[in-house]
Amino acid sequence: PDGTRIAFDSDREGNYDIYVMDADGGNQTRLTDNSGWDFSPAWSPDGTEIAFASARDQMLDIYAMDADGGNPTRLTYAGTLVDHPSWSPDGTRIAFDSDHDGNYDIYSIRIK
Predict the structure, then answer these.
(1) In angstroms, rounded to a whole number, what is the distance separating the alpha carbons of residues 36 and 19?
(2) What is the pLDDT at residue 13?
């Protein structure tokens, strides 16, 4: 959020996971490591959490975790495609897109 760190997804280890690095490309760290794809990371406004989409548990859902990769928490139980999480400016909601009803729409969930 302050421009010094970047969150990104990569399949460099054969499976999509979430990484962070310094803005200059240094200090790359993998935050997730599981058999399901983790992708579309988004920093919380205060920089303490990262929301992301994940295909772990054989379902696509939105998760949030601490900025160091700890405490991953499943936030949705959509049972359908969900992607592109985005935090509200005050950090209390996460918006995401989903084809829940057969058409892509924007949804939001309150997390705090």
Answers:
(1) 15
(2) 87
